[in-house]
Amino acid sequence: MGIGSEEAIRQLRALVDQVDERLKCTFQNVHQGYLTETLERFLKAREWNVSKAHKMLVDCLNWRVDNAIDMMLTKPILPVDVYRAVRDSQLIGLSGYSREGLPVFAIGVGLSTFDKASVNYYVQSHIQINEYRDRIILPSASKKYGQPITTCVKVLDMTGLKLSALSQIKLLTIISTIDDLNYPEKTNTYFIVNVPYIFSSCWKVVKPLLQERTRKKIQVLSGSGRDELLKIMDYSSLPHFCKREGSGSSRHSSDGAENCYSLDHSFHQQLYNHIKEQAVQESSRPIKQGSVHVSLPEPGAEGTEIARTIELELHKYGNANGKSNGLSNSLGSLKI
C-alpha cells in the first residue's frame, strides 16, 4: 500500500469517526474488526476519492439503519417450504475455500429462475447470505488462516442460459446494485464457466461497459473450468458443476451432498439454523412469517446501461435464430 493510499485511508477514517452513534454501531457489523481493509474497499470503489468514498460509506450505513440490516440474520424465511422454493430457484452456495482461504461461492446463473417467490424474498435471501458471509464466514476464515480474509471468489455457471433470462435482468440488476453500493469490492475474482454462445455474444458488447477494475476481476474459462480452478483450490472445494472435464452441467450433482445449491447442503443448513437460533434469542414472541421489505435501489447509470445492452443483444440473438416470439412478454414481466 503506497503513501497516497495510506493517507486516503487516514482521511476517510477521520471522517467516519465523526458519524453519529447509530451509524458507528452498524459500521462495527460491516468491518468486523478489519477497519483498514473495509475503508480500503470503499476507497477502491470510488477510485480513491476520499470525499466520494465517505459519501458512499455514510449512505451505506444509513441504508443499513433504515432497513434494519443488522437484524437481517434474525429474520428466517418461513415456512421452510418457501425457503426451499427460494433455494431451488436462486442457485447459490458455498462449495469450499481457495488455498489462500477465500470462500468459494458457486452461482447458477443460467439455471436460476427466480420464479418461485416474490422479489422481496429473493432480496432478503441475498442480503442474508451477504451478512452471513461477512459476519460469520469471513471472520472465521480470518481466524483459521491467521490473516485478514475480507473477500471471496465466485464461480458463475452459465449452463442453461436462455432468452428467458430477459425476465430476470431487472431483479439481477437490483441485487447487483445492492452489492455495488453496500458490499463493494467483496469479490476477489469472478470465474465464468460453461459458457454458451448466447453469453459469448453478450460478453463482447458488455465487457467494454464495465469499469476497468471490474474487468480485471473477471475470467471466462474454457468448459467447466476445472483445470484452471484446480490451480487455486483443491478438488474438494470445486463446485459440483466443475468436477468434470469439458463443459456442461446440471442443477444437481451425482452426489446430492455435494450440491451446494441445495437446502440440504451443510452451508445452507448452518445458515438457516443460525438465523432460526438468532430469531429465538431476539424475541420471545412467535416468529412472523412473510418476507422482509428492504428499500430497493435505483440502478446506477452503469447498471442500467449494461442491462439495456444485454436486452438488446438477446433480442438480436433471438431474431437471428427465429426465437423472437415471446420476447415482448418477457420484457413486460420486468416489473417489481
UniProtKB/TrEMBL annotation:
Listed Pfam families: CRAL_TRIO, CRAL_TRIO_N
Domain CRAL-TRIO: 79-239
Signal peptide span: none
Domain of life: Eukaryota
InterPro entries in the record: CRAL-TRIO_dom (IPR001251), CRAL-TRIO_dom_sf (IPR036865), CRAL/TRIO_N_dom (IPR011074), CRAL/TRIO_N_dom_sf (IPR036273)
Name this protein carries in UniProt: CRAL-TRIO domain-containing protein
Organism for this UniProt entry: Cucumis sativus
Lineage: Eukaryota, Viridiplantae, Streptophyta, Embryophyta, Tracheophyta
